[in-house]
Amino acid sequence: MRRSIAIAFAAMLAFAFDGRAAAPGEIRLGTITDLSGPAAPYGHAVVNALRLRFDAVNAAGGIRGRKIRLIVEDHQFQVPRAVQAASKLIRRDHVQAMVGALGTAQVQAVLPQLRAAGIPNLFPMAASRELVHAPDAITWISGSLYYDQIRAGVKWMVEQRGKRAVCALAQNTEYGEEVQQALRDQLGMRGQNLVAVATHRPADTDFTAAIARLRAANCDLVVLATLLRDTLLPMAAARAAGWSVDFLGPSTTHDYLLAAAPGGATQGLYSVSSVALPDQAAAAPEVLAWIAAYTARFGTAPNAGAIYGATIADLAVLALDHAGEGDDPARFARAIRSISGWRDLFGGTVQDFSAGSRQGTRQAYIWQLGGMRYERLTEALGY
Hints:
It is built from 13 helices and twelve strands. By secondary structure, it is an alpha/beta fold.
């Protein structure tokens, strides 16, 4: 993977950077996402929610008179394509900020380009520590990190559910490594070890051997570093084999789409997320209005990606408004630090950037899937 990144980055450097110049009265935002790969259900939903919000802002006159233009590039969940897509957004489209970019490895791979161009990376659909902990970080995260989510979730499962044989089923990606590190760190606090790990490629579809391996290790909790399909398939394989082990995953496993899994394969799944998925039977009128507007425009009900996208869009609009005119990175930083005590439309955890933090919160809720909804089991937790 590192070689493919280097090749794509070298090709990008073959073109001279020609500067950024948005049209007068325009704010150009770019995003790289998955529209045709394994994470496409997330990618399309995030983009839809961004467009819905930005179009509403533009219809009301824009941000201080400037209209938002969103430019979207499909990376198919492939790192080299992400590097090429970011190069195009910077050089050809002259974007002033990246917003809602999808994928941990993909986002990390494009950071050198963004740094060189002085372009802030606003609220990506990625939540690794590397994005916000580097001394020269240019990224702000909406919500908690995967690392924080897993540590909080495993702490609760060990203390409240008595789990002793904790295992992992993880993508063989930076995301998967981040989840495994969180597991080892949290278990180590109690003198426990990670019992077994099974890894897979994001596009794998056969999890029979992985589930057999974890079952043979007598796991009583399987912690997931997965997305949608690679959450559903191993849980279905476990159920088909008659293994009723508990599964827990970070925010990537907190999605309505999993509730509709055939045969109820994902029922009982625990997830850890800073975001609340609205229950239409009890949702506030403004949430129901947003759901109706999204469904009417895009012909489908919003999934978790859309909820994240709406939150990202609201934060981006708030930051852009506070920043005023100009695209100086220091101006963006000051604007984001002015956001404190903020809660999204749907009831997620309170977010606060005022102390200079590059993530909105380190806390998350524990949820459990039952029927077509996630039941919130806890208040916002840390570790």
